[in-house]
Amino acid sequence: MKKRDFKVVLIGYSGVGKSTFISALINENLNKFTYVDQHQPIQLTPEIFNHPECNTTLIDTKCPPNQIPDQVKIAHVLLLMYSIDDDNSCERLKMFWLKELKKKEFKQPIIIVGNKLDLMGKENDRKYCRIFIVIKQLVKDFSLKWEQSVHQLNFRVFKMQLIVLKDLILYPLAPLYNLVNKTITESFKKALTRIFRICDPDGDGVWSDYELQRFQKKVFKKHLDQSDIAGIKDMIEEEFKDDSNKKKYITLQGFMALQKRGIELMKIQISWTILRFFNYKDDLTLDESLFQDDLIFNQEAGQTVELSDFAQQKLKSIFELNGQNLTQTQFDYIFYPVMYQTSFPLLQQYHSQSQEITLIQWLALWNAFSFFNYKDAYKLLNYIGIDIKMADAFKAQNKKDSWYSVQKIVERKVFHIGVVTKNKKKILEEQFNNLSPRITIINSKTYVISIYDELQVQQQIEQSRLSIIDFLMIVNSYCFQTAQLIPITFFDDTISVWTQITKIVDILYSQNFGYSNFQIQQLKQKNSVSIISITSCIALIIGLTTAGYYYFLCKPFKKSK
């Protein structure tokens, strides 16, 4: 797990002792004198704040009059320093610093540091008490922390405050636990559901002792013996107040109960260690860097992306946990860990009159989704608990930019058919339940049917969504032109769309796959060009080789001196 950054920014007018304060803090911990360059970021050693998993940087700033330094924007905690022996310094806390920070809506915690207390003699005790009262009121008005720098620079209390703040920032409680209801949050439950699924490789919906040990070794790099496992199960049973979870395995509810108990025992760091190991950010969404990979394929040439057999097997395991058919409730539960709005097809988009779908239909939904946008599909796979690399999740299918490639179209598992009609609204209402595209399966292949209006298709035909279309059905009266080589047939508004789709399936498996003779000739020409190019290259290589052979054969031999 990579280290997290923690930036402490020191602000205050020139002359209040910011640089001296930093030097004193470092020298006290190192037990030696170290000169600190003004305004240079200082990387603090882990020992100072006892956070080996965190990179702590202390940043001094130049603070011109009436100006907030830019470094405040990157701060996790602000140290606002003033000079105790200066009445004006105390006054500027209220009139400028706190007022401006509040006005600009900076949300970082602020610790007020009173410096130069050692410059005030006993005769100034009364004056010091007045300043103390003023600062105490500021702390109350602005909800601040106040630490005063005492004589001989004893930083123990100051460091304890900073450590507490660091814990609150590094391990925030609010995203995980509701203090009012004393329950873990819905977002935390979603994250734990995903993590539990990832660490359940056999897909049986529970953790065996072996799976619990693997989880512990994977995340914390520690081994659990049988007494440790028994202790964990006892803690879960205490939370449930019964022995329903006892001894055999750990359920998802048991895993959630364990995390809740840990938080209530002030061990929130454990929960965040787990979350960050599985790439969760502080808002409990997954780190977007997980989804930055790209597959190399040529969409303009009609090449498509389909789910790999490995990914389909993972999806099959998730489905089978819910029985032989998937209801809407079970469908929603599978997607429960997802923390964003997704365009994944609805259960109703499958061509079926029932409110349930089978395993074949479930896989068809995923095949269709991956066909149009494999990146979104990959992100969704990760969120529902399938830990898989992008290269393992998908495979690129053949291109369609030559006759040779088109002849391999039967190897595809997903086909996209577009219907162009004047009666789009009528068809959507009567035959598609107002949902487009619709998905169906014929002869173990997935077919995605999109309905387009005449005007709509004219605008979209050259765009990416139609560049991977496999067949177009167009009303007889419509004159259609496209630079893309797409098989086209006529669409009859009086006949059921599904009846016509079945006929197209037969055409796709015929000898010419629905292409016109003119389109076939164009595709063959692309083949010819490539063959001529290859032949030319071979001839050139043979020619050069032969010429070189005769050159050396006929070249006069020179005797060496």
Give the helices and strands, then pairings:
Blueprint: E1 4-11, H1 18-30, E2 42-44, H2 46-49, E3 54-60, E4 77-83, H3 87-103, E5 110-115, H4 125-142, E6 145-148, H5 156-170, E7 177-178, E8 183-184, H6 186-198, H7 209-220, H8 226-240, H9 252-264, H10 268-277, E9 305-307, H11 309-320, H12 328-334, H13 359-372, H14 374-383, H15 390-393, E10 394-396, H16 403-406, E11 414-421, H17 424-430, E12 438-442, E13 445-453, H18 454-460, H19 464-467, E14 471-475, E15 488-491, H20 497-508, H21 517-554
Parallel strand pairs: 1-3, 1-4, 4-5, 5-6, 11-13, 11-14, 14-15
Antiparallel strand pairs: 2-3, 7-8, 9-10, 12-13
GO molecular function: GTP binding; GTPase activity; metal ion binding
Organism: Paramecium pentaurelia
Keywords: Calcium, GTP-binding, Hydrolase, Membrane, Metal-binding, Mitochondrion, Mitochondrion outer membrane, Nucleotide-binding, Repeat, Transmembrane, Transmembrane helix
